[in-house]
Specification:
single chain; alpha+beta; Arc Repressor Mutant, subunit A; nine-stranded mixed sheet; three-stranded antiparallel sheet; 16 strands; 40% helix; elongated
Length: 472
């Protein structure tokens, strides 16, 4: 039998506000355990939450960018459950009137429907110490503002899921509403997955995999869980609706608890926060603030600067990379040259260091200067790459490095002529081969000249002098 995988996502995104959703505690990542919390975000008796206006702004901006309908009158609800990382035993969220609904995202010609986007507060974090066999609670994350983006079950493969998440991450980063650092938990994904016979209209029993925080883990978890469910069904067994956890080390999912439904949480309207009224003037102002997004940048880069489609797509994949590209071009560097350096050397160094573009120290001014030295003939491309590698990590001074290491390109025709004559005299057979029509011999002779000049000769000068000498 042929099986079809059906997937829906719940993506939790930490918002880039300086303070928490209902109090003035910092949202800064890290810090000593239980130092970024107060009576409000831990729900002490007698405290009252006050909504952070920036949270509402960021949620609406995200909703507009994701083509959602904005709920003009929305409210918060209490989601009640007991768990050690939730000190007040309830979470302030939105169930009945979420801030955004009925959106869509296009991925490669397919439309993924967004059921809703709602605001809520994050819970704390449980840290298990295997040496002491203890689990400890860190409440620093309690009250950090989240938006949860819930899709319809429109995905049919891990590849579609990753494509959507890449598009979602790019959109949120361009908006500036989140840094989407998955390694820090700023973007986490719950995957709801079921399988059914191909062509069937009825959904199978779904499981939910919680808090996946890397694209690699998400793809592997989907592949494993789909295979597990298919094997169960083919053996005549049934799939149990439950919450499962992905174990990266074992490359498998395992059961955590039975899957809760909405009624299990005993939702009721949050009594301490009044409903929100969203005016048309407020929406118009936020629409006017929406930045140029990746698709628009791609089109502009191709139209204005003649970049190939692939280059434009790769550069605009990260907002920080697109900003870096535009700033370097603004300093006078030729756009295609900047693109070549970013696509090659910059991305290579970022990948090698496990960095994102926003974390690199290299500045547009440094790359623009390096490109200028190549254009002026003071460095050849190979030497420039070595200089780039040397200055990338700490944004070193290009000119100082070139001077200190004596790397400036040799353009002195007299010096080049002298070395060419020595090479020709020492390689009579190669000279004879070239004159007999073997063009490869010319490349060998060029290499010998460059070797003598330690790779610092201007290639155009070497080629010209060598051909002049060989034609005599």
């Amino acid at each position: 039998m042929t099986w079809e995988t059906v997937i829906g996502l719940e993506t939790h995104v930490e918002l880039a506000t300086k303070t928490k959703i209902f109090c003035s505690c910092t949202t800064q990542f890290g810090g000593e355990a239980n130092t970024h919390c107060c009576p409000v975000c831990t729900g002490m008796p007698g405290t009252l939450p006050v909504l952070n206006e920036k949270v509402l702004e960021f949620a609406v901006k995200a909703g507009l960018a994701l083509n959602c309908d904005i709920t003009r009158r929305c409210k918060f609800d209490r989601k009640n459950y007991f768990y050690p990382d939730l000190p007040k035993a309830y979470q302030i969220s939105q169930l009945y009137l979420p801030i955004c609904r009925d959106g869509k995202v296009d991925i490669g010609g397919k439309t993924i429907r967004i059921h809703e986007l709602h605001m809520e507060e994050d819970a704390g974090k449980l840290v298990h110490d295997p040496w002491l066999d203890q689990t400890r609670a860190d409440y620093n994350r309690c009250g950090v503002p989240l938006i949860e983006i819930v899709t319809e079950p429109d995905f049919r493969s891990a590849e579609e899921v990753i494509s959507y998440l890449e598009r979602l991450r790019s959109t949120l980063q361009y908006l500036g509403v989140s840094d989407c650092k998955m390694q820090e938990g700023s973007l986490r994904c719950d995957v709801n997955l079921s399988v059914r016979p191909a062509g069937s209209a009825e959904f199978g029993t779904r499981t939910e995999m919680k808090n996946l925080n890397s694209f690699k883990a998400i793809a592997r978890a989907i592949q494993y869980e789909a295979r597990r469910q298919i094997e169960l069904l083919e053996e005549g067994k049934r799939v149990v609706q439950e919450t499962r956890r992905w174990d990266e080390n074992k490359d498998a999912t395992y059961a955590m608890r039975s899957k809760e439904n909405a009624q299990d949480y005993r939702y009721f309207p949050e009594p301490d926060i009044p409903p929100l009224e969203i005016s048309e003037e407020y929406l118009a102002r936020l629409r006017a603030q929406q930045p140029e997004m990746a698709d628009a940048k791609q089109a502009r880069y191709q139209a204005d600067w003649g970049l190939p489609s692939y280059d434009a797509q790769m550069i605009t994949g990260q907002k920080a990379l697109a900003d870096f590209f535009e700033a370097t071009v603004a300093l006078g560097a030729e756009p295609k040259q900047v693109s070549n350096w970013i696509m090659g050397e910059v991305m290579g160094q970022l990948s090698a260091g496990g960095l994102e573009a926003k974390d690199m120290k290299l500045t547009p001014a440094t790359l623009a200067r390096l490109i200028a030295l190549v254009k002026e003939g003071k460095l050849n491309r190979n030497t420039a790459v070595k200089v780039f590698e040397a200055v990338f990590a700490d944004n070193g001074d290009v000119d100082a490095y070139v001077k200190e290491h004596g790397l400036e390109q040799v353009s002195d025709t007299g010096l080049v002529t002298s070395v060419v004559e020595q090479v020709l005299a020492a390689n009579e057979k190669s000279v004879a081969d070239f004159k007999a029509g073997k063009e490869k011999a010319f490349g060998f002779l060029v290499g010998q000249v460059m070797r003598q000049l330690k790779g610092q000769a201007a290639p155009a000068v070497v080629n010209q002098v060598l051909r002049d000498k060989l034609s005599q």
